[in-house]
Design brief:
The protein is mainly alpha-helical. It contains 44 helices and 10 strands. The strands form 2 sheets. Strands 1, 2, 3, 4 and 5 form a 5-stranded mixed β-sheet that branches. Helix 14 (about 230-250) links the parallel strand 2 (about 220-225) and strand 3.
Length: about 1000
């Protein structure tokens, strides 16, 4: 007896053999069925070798209890004791699969299926499985026979007799045999239908690719034809009945459960299309209507059941179409977009546990391999395999994928598929989620040979392989391009020039020859610089390809690299700071403006790093006070006004680049940070930042001009008043600075002297800000001054007061709504604003005549200023529902109600619109409609400037530029038409609001 309080030696041995509930195991070993083997070390060793010894022991006891009599139990025990192959197979299955243990408990004689250990049993094919299923005469018997076959596959799998690829192939062969048996049952049940038609079953997906899971939908397509002399309509209806019956036999749940769902949704038109089509109907559909993903799916098409001759005809007919898919417009973009959509549709709570669909999962490997097959399989028939690992091996052998990358992917894919198999095998349920329970993770880890610390080791290995897949996923496309261009390893298989050209074209490069030259220039040689470039370029090329103009991205990257290649920090920044390389790729391929600004001072690349400010890192816009402080300091250090203004313009150029880069990165998004969902926030960012840096540039220029001409003090106080979009903090990249100039002679200074000084200041400021240089000019527009172009450029405050008191017109009060002092004498600027406040916010509001005058001005402006030949519906400024419509509607409310509603006393359109909504002057719905249209029109104007490098109020007509505008606005490749439709729709709704609120119709 065991002394009280002490554990038995059996208990200790059970713990040592991997049992987690040794007390329960002791009780099971004490049952009459197992008592003879209680102390058998061979049995304990065999149980300890399983994935879950507790589960294996429970399953063995249940199986013994299920035996019909003592003789059968003795036979089972004797065989387990004496036959190591059976013992390992049986206990291995019982320790890995509760579902198969349940099957054995229901069908107590099926363990004998594991006794045979002849060479022909090690790798059975379709013929062997068909023989095993041949005696099934009804769906229930077919399920039992199917599970018996599955039992033998699982036994070979868990014992290591077959590897994961062989197991997946056996499962696909068993599925083939099962589909044939099910179709046989359906034909036997409806012989008249069988005589009318020829029906072929085409396996798709993993079954077609010979790489099936334990539990998976079996994807199929049906092809039907009438037998000679039969009516085609009747034959197709008969074929549809047979196909439907076959699907039910496999899918329906009976007392023996179900086999697996048969899914025919990959057929033309999906579930909306007919279940069975003729061969000619299939071909017509694929020639005219099929989408890219449908050709990708056809990579795995394989005839498996029914009329195999008809099935082969189907494959022969569609195969040429499959290998032409890469020639379709936006082919790679379509495939990558589909992959992104799959990831986006995963519930947030499941992303980190998704073995198949999550980042670094099985689907990443499969999509990458299929994409490369479609690109290069046109010219290389050796790549045309439906099996992922076989195709990957062929891609490596042909140089289409680097050998090291292929080996790493192969290893990762095998591990992830093995995990998937073990997860599904336990309950024979379709799932791709890694369980959270430690007991489940322990069983999976042990089944994969991780015995020291199964849970921790499994998690580490899973994350290691998933990380490898993530890293390699993009590199897979681009690394061989570099190998082909750099030619560093003679004798290695590499892409031919033609294959490299094909891949670049498929990835969206319009000039592959130039692209290859750039790659050669960047990556060739044995220098450290070239080595770092070869590390960076595979990922950069992928980011370039995600833009509307990959060629420009690569060319601009070469220019920047040529300019900065000798600086020690440039490549180190791109290699070591996570955000810098991706931000640079986005900026260089998004259009002309940002790269042009960068090329003028390439060291601004440093702004693209992570920085230390959080948020946008180095791209966080700087405030006006900080900018003005820097500009004024630079002016003080300068030798003369010209040098001072050059310094101010340099700061403005750098900050324009910072703002443009932040805008582009926010619009495109990055791998770590999705695109900014609030489009209004991006508009406010650009408008505020550009307005602030323009104000700082003007302040610096004013200081430089005054300092050179008059020293510390100008004979007259001088202030600059921002107007228009400048005053509204809504400047775009290409906007002029609308201003008014006001001065006031200092005590004792003659008015003539003061006026001359003020005019000289304005003239010199305008000249210096427009001098030809590497920095973009800043144009000053003073046309909103009293009397317009006919009036004096600069007035005293008293002159403004006299003019506004006697001569002011409605349009001038309207224009003054945007007035804001931005530079010069602060006190004078404040007094100017106090002067004009009663004009722009009249105490009694606007009379009807004034309202009619504003409406007439608006109508005349639309008629006279809209460019000849322009489509009004797409003109962002003057078109219906565009900027002018929204702004004039908001400004009319400000003129009418600004005196009574303090919130309306703002120069900013969106703030005024929000205040009008809060005051009940406009409904929330109408305010949202106007805001959406104004934000969209502003975004389009900013996009046009970023893409073309010059300002414009309409969408570009050139297709690549239009696509780039679409990409900035969040539209994928091939969706420029959707973008234009959305713009028209948004502005049409806004115009309806404008007609009601502004025109009163």
């Amino acid at each position: 007896m065991t002394a009280p309080g002490r554990r038995s030696s059996t208990f200790t041995r059970l713990l040592r053999h991997g049992f987690t509930d040794a007390s329960a195991a002791e009780r099971l070993l004490d049952t009459p069925e197992l008592a003879p083997l209680r102390d058998d070390p061979v049995l304990l060793d065999a149980l300890g070798a399983t994935a879950d010894p507790d589960l294996a022991l429970q399953g063995l006891v249940r199986l013994l209890e299920a035996q019909p009599d003592a003789t059968a139990r003795r036979e089972l025990l004797d065989t387990v004791t004496a036959a190591k192959p059976l013992r390992d197979r049986l206990l291995g299955v019982l320790g890995a699969s509760a579902a198969l243990a349940d099957h054995l408990a229901r069908h107590a004689g099926d363990w004998r299926a594991l006794v045979m250990y002849e060479p022909r049993d090690l790798h059975p094919g379709v013929d062997e499985f068909e023989r095993s299923l041949a005696e099934a005469r009804d769906p229930v018997a077919l399920r039992v026979a199917y599970r018996r076959c599955l039992l033998s596959i699982a036994a070979r799998d868990v014992c290591g007799t077959t590897d994961v690829a062989e197991t997946a192939a056996e499962l696909a062969d068993l599925a083939t045999a099962t589909l044939r048996a099910a179709l046989g049952l359906a034909r036997a049940a409806a012989p008249d239908d069988a005589e009318l038609c020829r029906l072929a079953v085409i396996a798709m997906g993993k079954c077609g690719g010979h790489e099936l899971n334990y539990v998976s939908d079996v994807d199929v397509i049906f092809v039907g034809e009438a037998v000679d002399g039969a009516d085609e309509g009747k034959a197709l209806r008969a074929a549809t009945r047979l196909a439907s019956h076959m699907m039910r036999i496999c899918s329906e749940t009976t007392v023996e459960g179900s086999i697996w769902p048969v899914d025919a949704n990959l057929r033309p038109e999906g579930r909306n299309g007919p279940l069975v089509r003729t061969l000619s109907s299939h071909v017509a559909y694929y020639q005219r209507w099929a989408k890219t993903w449908e050709f990708q799916a056809l990579l795995k098409a394989r005839p498996v059941a029914g009329d195999l001759g008809l099935g082969e005809q189907y494959v022969a007919a569609v195969e040429p179409l499959v290998w032409q898919a890469a020639e379709r417009e936006n082919f790679v973009a379509d495939v990558q977009k589909m992959r992104r959509r799959v990831v986006e549709n995963i519930p947030v709570a499941e992303v980190d546990r998704q073995l198949k669909l999550g980042p670094g999962g099985l689907r990443d490997v499969e999509f990458a391999v299929q994409l490369l097959q479609l690109v290069h399989g046109r010219a290389d028939a050796s790549l045309r395999s439906g099996t992922t690992l076989a195709a990957l091996k062929a891609l490596a052998a042909g140089g289409y994928v680097g050998r090291a990358d292929a080996a790493q992917l192969d290893e990762a894919y095998r591990f992830l598929r093995s995990m998937e198999h073990r997860i599904q095998l336990f309950r024979l349920r379709r799932t791709h989620l890694v369980p959270e329970d430690d007991a489940d993770l322990r069983r999976i880890g042990r089944s994969l040979g991780l015995r020291a610390d199964p849970v921790a080791d499994l998690h580490r290995e899973w994350k290691r392989h998933a990380g490898a897949v993530r890293r390699l996923h993009e590199k897979l496309f681009y690394r061989p391009l570099l190998d082909a261009a750099a030619q560093l390893a003679p004798g290695e298989a590499r892409l031919s020039t033609e294959a490299a050209r094909e891949r670049l074209v498929a990835l969206g490069y319009a000039d592959p020859a130039s692209a290859l030259r750039h790659l050669e220039a960047l990556a060739s040689g044995v220098s450290r610089k070239a080595a770092i470039q070869r590390t960076l370029l595979p990922v950069l090329l992928g980011w370039f390809a995600d833009s509307a103009d990959p060629d420009a991205g690569l060319l601009n990257f070469r220019k920047v690299s040529d300019a900065l290649g000798k600086t020690p920090w440039y490549l180190r920044l791109l290699r070591d700071e996570g955000a810098a390389a991706e931000n640079l790729a986005r900026v260089l391929s998004a259009g002309r403006l940002a790269p042009d600004l960068l090329m003028r001072a390439p060291e601004a690349v440093a702004l693209l790093g992570d920085g230390d400010t959080g948020g946008r890192g180095g791209l966080e816009p700087r405030g006006r006070a900080q900018l003005e402080q820097e500009v004024l300091a630079a002016v003080r250090r300068a030798d003369g006004a010209a040098q001072g203004v050059t310094a101010a313009r340099g700061v403005r150029r750098r900050e324009l680049f910072r703002t443009a880069a932040a805008d582009i990165v926010g619009s495109y998004g990055t791998e770590a940070q999705p695109a900014e969902a609030d489009q209004g926030a991006l508009v406010d960012l650009v408008g505020g930042a550009v307005s602030d840096l323009t104000a700082a540039a003007l302040a610096g220029t004013l200081r430089a001009v005054v300092g050179e001409g008059w020293g510390d003090t100008l004979p007259t106080r001088f202030a600059i008043i921002a107007m228009g979009r400048f005053g509204g903090h809504e400047l775009g990249y290409g906007s002029d600075a609308d201003v008014l100039f006001v001065h006031e002679p200092r005590d004792g200074v003659e008015e003539r002297e003061a006026a001359d000084a003020a005019n000289k200041v304005v003239s010199e400021m305008r000249r210096l800000l427009q001098l030809p240089s590497s920095d973009p000019p800043l144009l000053i527009d003073a046309d909103l001054r009293p009397e317009g172009k006919s009036g004096p450029l600069v007035r005293t405050l008293k002159s403004y007061e006299a003019y506004y008191r006697r001569w002011s017109l409605v349009w001038e009060s309207h224009a003054l709504l945007r007035a804001e002092a931005v530079a010069g004498d602060e006190e004078l600027g404040r007094r100017f604003i106090e002067l004009v406040d009663p004009l722009r916010y009249p105490a009694d509001g606007l009379g009807e005549e004034a309202v009619r005058e504003i409406r007439r001005l608006k109508a005349r402006m639309e008629a006279e200023r809209l460019p000849r030949g322009a489509d009004p519906r797409l003109h962002t400024k003057l078109g219906p529902g565009g900027l002018s419509d929204v702004e004039w509607t908001v400004q009319l409310m400000q003129l009418r109600h600004g005196a009574q509603v303090p919130g309306l006393r703002t120069t900013r359109t969106r703030q005024a619109l929000a205040a009008a909504r809060e005051a009940g002057l406009i409904t929330a719905e109408d305010a949202a409609t106007l805001d959406e249209a104004w934000v969209l029109a502003t975004r389009v104007r900013n996009a046009v400037m970023l893409v073309r490098g010059r300002a414009g109020d309409t969408f570009p007509s050139e297709s690549r530029e239009l696509a780039a505008v679409g990409r900035y606005l969040g539209y994928g490749a091939g969706h420029a038409g959707d973008m234009l439709d959305a713009y028209r729709r948004t502005t049409r709704r806004a115009r309806a609001v404008v007609d009601e609120l502004f025109y009163g119709t």
